[in-house]
Design goal:
By secondary structure, this protein is α/β, with parallel strands linked by helices. It is 42% helix and 16% strand. Strands 1-2-3-8-9-11-13 form a seven-stranded mixed beta sheet, with helices on both faces. It has a two-stranded antiparallel ribbon with strand order 4-7.
Amino acid sequence: MYLLRNAPFTGAFSFLFHRKIDIFVQTLRLMKKFIFMFFALLLTGQIHAQTKHLQPGFDPEEYTEMLGIIARQIDTPWTQVKIPLDEKYRLALRSPRYFPDNRWDLWTSADSLLVIDLHATTGSFESWMENYYAAMIPATGTWKISDSLSFNYSLATDSRAAVHAGWMLALAYMTDDIGHALDSVMNLGYRNLIITGHSQGGALACLFTAWLRHRQLNGHFTKLNIKTYCSASPKPGNQYFAWDFTSLTQMGWAFNVINPLDWVPETPFTLQTTRDMNRQSPFSNIKNNIRKQKFPMNLVVRHLYNRMNKPLEKTSRRLNHFMGKKVHGQLAKNTAIHAPDYDGCMNYVAAGQQIILKPDSAYYAVFCNENTGTFTHHMLRPYYFLIKSW
C-alpha cells in the first residue's frame, strides 16, 4: 500500500485509483472480521438456543445496557469509560470506517441477544457535514451516489415521506455490510436484535430500523425480532416519515430517549409550509378558495395570505440551497458523490415513541452550574444519570 500510495499518479485518476484500492482493502478486512466473528462465536460456545426474548415496551434496564455499549464506541482503553458495561455483552465485530465518517458495531450477549450500535458524530469535518446535509430526499427511491454505487432503498410506504440526505448517505455505504453480518449471525440461530445509537447514531438507528423493517415487509430478515433504542436522536425526517415509522413500531418496539435540556433532539431546523400538509387541508387548496371570495374580499385575503406564505417559501428555498447544494459541494470535494433528487421539504418531526427523562433537583445540582457548556446535557453521562433515577 505504501508503494501504491506514492506512485506517480496525478489528478483525478490518482484519486479514483487510490479510492478503489481503499475500498478493496476495507472489503478484505471486513470479510476477515466476519470469518473471525463466526469462528470466535462458535468456539466460545455462544451459539445456543435463544434464552433472551425481546418484549415490547420501554425497559429502563435495556436502555441502560445500551448506554454501556454506546460508551464503548471509542478506541481508547475501555478501562477509562465510566459508564459500566453489563458483563454478558461481547463485541463481535467493529466495522471499518465508511464515508463520510461512520462505523457500526455488532455485539452479542450471553443470552443470545444481538445489538447493532451505530456510532455518533466524530470530530471530523466530514462527520459534521453529514449532519448539516439536511435537505430531504424521498424516503423510497434510488440514489446513484457514484458511477460505481447505486443505493436502492425503501424506508416508508407513504410516497410523501422524506428523510435527511446526510444520514441516508451514511446508510448507503453501510447497509449492505450490516445486512451481510445479520445474515451470518441469523444462520447461527440468533433471532433477537436491538438497534441503538446516540445523537447522530440515534438518527441512523431510526433510519436503519425503517430500512430493515421494510426489508422484512418484502420477505427478508423475517426471523428477526427487532427493538430500537435511539438516544438523544435528532429528527430524521418529515411528518409522513414519522407517521409511517411510528405505525410500524408503535406497539412498543422503537423509542427515542430525550433529556429535555438537550438541544440536539430539537434539530435540524424545521419549517412547515402549505406544501407539507395533506391535500384535503384548506391551506393546501387555499388559492382556489380565495378565488371563490367576492370582490374586494378576495384581494384582501390573497394579500394577507401572500404576506404569510411567501416568507415561508423563501426560507424553505434558502434552507434547501444551503443545506443541500452547498453542503453537498463540501462533501464532494474529496469524494465524488452525485447529488440526489431533493424533496424540498424541511418539515422535520421526531419519529418513534418519545421517552422523556425529566431532570430533577439532583440533576440540576450536578449538571447545571457555571461550567455548563454546549454539549453538557447531550453527553452520555447525564443520560445515564437520568435513567438510573428514572
